[in-house]
Structures are given as C-alpha cells and as structure tokens.
Predict the structure.
Amino acid sequence: MILKVEGLKKTYKQNRAVDNVSFQVEESSIFALLGPNGAGKTTTIKCILNLRKADSGKILLNGSFAYLPETKELYRYLTVEKMVEVSSSVTQNFEKNKCIELLDEFQIPLREKIANLSHGMLTQTYMALVLSQKADIYFMDEPTWGLDPIMRNRILELIRALTYDGRTVFYTSHILAEVEKVADVVAIMVKGKIAEVDSLDNLKEKYVLCVVPKGEKIDGFHYKSTENEDIYVARKESAKGVVEPANFDAIFESIVKGVK
C-alpha cells in the first residue's frame, strides 16, 4: 500500500466538498477517481498533497510524488526550453534528457513560448515535465485534457508503462473509455462521497441491467426508461425481471444519477 485515506473531510463555507472519504491505493497500480464536475475529486487530491488543509481525517502517503494539476498552467512568458531548465533546477530527481526526448516525440518546439501553445500542446508539455520526474506515485488530474485520440492513446501507454517500473498512478478523467483501458481500480465519487470502489472486473461482475415493467421498482439505480419498461442497474443478488450484462458506462451513469 502506497496511499491510505481514512475519513477525509473538507468543507468550503457551507459546502462539504469531501465527505468522510476513505480508500487505499496499492503499489504498482493505476487508481482512477471518477465522478461528475464538482464531485470533490480535485479537492481530494489537493488534500492528499497538502495543497488544501483537510478539516479532519488521516492520510498516509508512503513515498515521493509528482503532480499534474487539473489546470495546466506554466510560466507563459518562458519558452518551452526555459521551462525545462527551470523544472530541472527546482525539481528533485528530474531527468532533463528524458524530458527533451518526450517533447521531441510530442513535436513541441523548444523555442516556442508557453503562451503560444494550444491546449493540447500545453498538456503534452506539462506531461513531459511530470513524466521526467522520478517519483513513487504520480497524481494526474485530467492527464489527457485537450488531446486528440492518437496522442491520448500515447499518453495512456506512458501512464501504464509507469507501473511496469513499480510506480503508482492516481488519476482523474471524464473519459470512461480511457479509464477502461488502463485503470486497475476505480472509485466513483458523487457529491463528496465515495459511492463505489472496486476493480473494473469486479464492478462488471457485481452489477447487471434489469428490465422490468414500467413503474415497477427494484433495489438498484434507475438507469433509463422506455415507453413500456424501466431499466435499472442493480447488484446481482437484487436482480429482477430480464437480466442482462451491464457495461461500465451504464454502471457509472446510473450510480452518479442515483446517489441522493
């Protein structure tokens, strides 16, 4: 175990952004924290990294970390090359040559000013800086923000490769298809709480789609309705009606909609 969070709470004025959250992350794994906007994902990460002061709870982080924030902001007046120099001078265990190689692969001009980079190029530049830092765990908030499908797949390959060297990744994403490609464990966060946490395989095994006559209620999350039927996502032990396998999109959407 490289990270353990117990009973984490964080309130902004009257808003409980993180509400008694607990989970743990194993070494050499990819842990995905998912949820709609405002669920508390970024606040959770910032509390773990002590960038926000938690109201209460325990956080045990074993090892060094690197961080890719949700807002991809670098020094706009610097060139990419100068940004690499600055990062090398202030970041421990930074591999400058690796960073230059990644920027070359991403086709990011070293002499271009940060201010002139597109959203996607800015994400790639920030990713190159983070991936060039040797750390035990990498926290990545929306690491494929603004990327085209080809570059997104390449970034996912690099993220997965970190675990081959015994590193750990904790990340958030709104793109469920990419989560299915790389995540070992998924936590679904809704309204500041963890509604579900398990491996992807277990989630798909645990939940099924249930098709019942219109108006019939069952113990589960309402997913959608047709003219004559209601469709629920329910645990297997609570299944009724016509039962079908549930894909991850249906499980995620129904849990997010169904949590009160």
